[in-house]
Design brief:
The chain has 363 residues and is mainly beta. It has a single domain, classed as Neuraminidase (6 Propeller), CATH 2.120.10. It is 14% helix and 39% strand. It has 5 helices and 26 strands. The strands form 7 sheets. A 4-stranded antiparallel β-sheet has the order 1-26-25-24, with no helix packed on it. Strands 2-3-4-5 form a 4-stranded antiparallel β-sheet, with no helix packed on it. A 4-stranded antiparallel β-sheet has the order 6-7-8-9, with no helix packed on it. The longest helix has 24 residues. It is globular. It binds calcium ion. The site of calcium ion has 10 residues, from strand 6, strand 12, strand 16 and strand 20. This is Strictosidine synthase conserved region domain-containing protein. It is found in: Vacuole. One of its GO terms (cellular component) is endomembrane system. GO terms for molecular function: hydrolase activity. Pfam families: SSL_N, Str_synth.
């Protein structure tokens, strides 16, 4: 064989081997193929009609809740719990710090329960901030995401991933594993226990009106699951709704017993292809630049209203995300929807009173 060809072949072989070694040493994921949903909801632009609450003052308000005092609360990227007074003014209520505050939900005693992806489950009141739980059964609560308190004081919460933290959520998506957990905190003894494991990114949590079941969102499987708390099926899990058009983030019970679910856009032709090729995912995950380039580019937003029967009743969207992008929560309160997002500096407010908006049912 001529010497130049030998030199070129040697260089190519050395490059391939060094790349393989880099992937072997640095790829943080154990990738699996991911089955993606086939369904598509029609895209409308009803979310473009929102009123922008607190614009410029609310940095990435991922979730909202209404406290016992009737005020709207949210947690922002700058570490504040902020609340909206009836005169329309926003108050910087409590400083927690960090940039990892996510789900907020009211407590029966008037406090606000907060999920801090880094610190765990917190309770915030006029008296200050208390860490309720940061560990579960000898392991760290790695990525507290969302919580709900039952009438008996038990708090159910999601630990989105026990492997990847908030800044690495996309690696968890690439891996397509089952690193998430549903947990419960018992205030009578201060103990936290594991309720459900093997969840592919455990996200929003909501209780049924009778508290006989709860729904938790499994973002990276594009579905929400029902976990029975009472009755013959107590302790079992079944699919509530699947084949969603986006990854379900937070979920909230509506006054009529249905649920509002925010869907984040996790689809692109490139990602759809990548998910069929675990080895390619292994390579991409080894290079931070490739990870950033692979993230979904879709800027649109969508929320769906799902009946207790698991059927979609309404859908609202912003097809290009120019007004509402990356919506992570939808809360119905007194005839309005309040929309949280990690990519806005406001909370969207939309009237959904029948006869007062153009929102249509999809039946
Ligand atoms: Ca969430």
């Amino acid at each position: 064989m001529p010497r130049p060809i030998i030199l070129i072949a040697s260089s190519v072989l050395a490059t391939v081997l060094s790349l393989a070694l880099h992937v072997f040493l640095h790829s943080p994921i154990s990738p699996r193929p991911l089955s993606l949903p086939s369904s598509r909801f029609s895209v409308n632009n009803l979310l473009k009609q929102v009123e922008k609450l607190g614009e410029g003052n609310l940095l990435g308000p991922e979730d909202t809740c209404v406290g016992k005092d009737g005020k709207l609360y949210t947690a922002t990227r700058d570490g504040w719990i902020k609340r909206l007074h009836s005169n329309g003014s926003w108050e910087n209520w409590k400083m927690i710090g960090g940039s990892s505050l996510l789900g907020v939900t009211p407590s029966l005693n008037g406090d606000i329960i907060v999920c801090d992806a880094d610190k765990g489950l917190l309770k915030v009141g006029d008296g200050g901030v208390t860490i309720l739980a940061s560990e579960v059964e000898g392991t760290k609560i790695f990525f507290a995401d969302d919580a709900i308190e039952a009438s008996d004081g038990i708090i159910y919460l999601s630990d989105a991933s026990s492997k990847f933290g908030l800044d690495e959520w996309f690696l968890d998506f690439l891996e397509a594993g089952s690193n998430g957990r549903l947990l419960k905190y018992d205030p009578s003894n201060g103990k936290t226990s594991i309720v459900v494991t093997n969840i592919s990114f455990a996200n929003g949590v909501a209780l049924s009106p009778d508290e006989d079941y709860l729904i938790f969102c499994e973002t990276f499987r594009f579905r929400c699951m029902k976990y029975w708390l009472q009755g013959e099926k107590k302790g079992t899990t079944e699919v509530f709704i699947d084949n969603l058009a986006g990854g379900p983030d937070n979920i909230n019970l509506a006054p009529d017993g249905s649920f509002w679910i925010a869907l984040i856009g996790l689809r692109s032709w490139w990602l759809d292809l990548l998910h069929q090729l675990p080895m390619a995912k292994l390579v991409v995950a080894a290079f931070p630049t490739a990870v950033d380039l692979s993230k979904p580019m879709r800027k649109g937003a969508m929320v769906v209203n799902v009946g207790a029967d698991g059927k979609v009743r309404r859908e609202l969207g912003d097809s290009d995300g120019r007004v509402m992008a990356f919506v992570t929560s939808a809360l119905e309160h007194e005839g309005h929807l309040y929309l949280g997002s990690l990519q806005t500096d406001f909370i969207g407010k939309l009237s959904i009173k029948e006869g007062k908006s153009s929102i249509t049912y999809n039946d």
